[in-house]
Design brief:
By secondary structure, this protein is an alpha/beta fold. The protein has one domain: Flavodoxin domain (Rossmann fold, 3-Layer(aba) Sandwich). Strands 1, 2, 3, 4, 5 and 6 form a six-stranded parallel beta sheet that branches. Strand 4, helix 5 and strand 5 form a beta-alpha-beta unit. The longest helix is centred in the N-terminal third of the chain and has 24 residues.
């Protein structure tokens, strides 16, 4: 009887230790994105469904037009000026996140300039940034290199890019990309 009670006590103790280690190893995830047309939002939602975490929509003070060409013209001008458009929202508890999925459209081969504002607004040292984007023709462009430059001290993992027109059908590609980045999918 004493042996059984002792074994039960050991099992409970080891189970408690395992749960504490698992809780310590859980990383806090933020999915921060901007989506003008809804395509990048779709990918953000696929990531959120696969991982959980918190989701944050990046908003700008200046609204971008619904018309793609007008948005592209503004984006091109902002790139030429190396502009830092003002953000309308902030992540209040950025320090509490370990992994940040950063989602954006590609405009003229780059992420929108307000992402430069976003990245320069926080200290990402010791964090992991995993970029994802939607595009029309240029792929991920130089966005991963820009993120690495703007977030010194962060680990930037493999970016995921999908043609905007294919975003709705990208769930399996998103899951495969998460796994390539060593992220456990539920």
């Amino acid at each position: 009887m004493k042996k059984a009670a002792f074994l039960l006590l050991i099992i409970v103790f080891l189970g408690s230790c395992r749960e504490k280690v698992q809780a310590q190893n859980q990383e806090r995830i933020l999915i921060a994105y901007y989506s003008r047309s809804g395509n990048t939002r779709t990918v953000a939602e696929y990531i959120h469904q696969a991982l959980g975490g918190d989701i944050f929509e990046i908003e700008t003070v200046m609204a971008y037009p619904n018309d793609y060409q007008s948005t592209a013209d503004i984006a091109r001008q902002q790139q030429r000026e190396n502009a830092r458009p003002e953000l309308a929202s902030r992540v209040n508890n950025m320090n509490s996140y370990d992994i940040i999925f950063l989602g954006y459209p590609i405009w003229w081969g780059r992420m929108p300039m307000f992402f430069f504002t976003f990245l320069e607004s926080y200290n990402f040292s010791g964090k992991t940034i995993i970029p994802f984007c939607t595009y029309g023709s240029s792929g991920v462009g130089q966005s991963a290199a820009d993120i690495q430059r703007l977030a010194p001290g962060a680990t930037v993992r493999e970016a995921f890019g999908v043609r905007g027109a294919n975003a709705n059908n990208s769930r399996n590609d998103v899951t495969a990309w998460l796994r390539r980045n060593g992220i456990a999918v539920r």
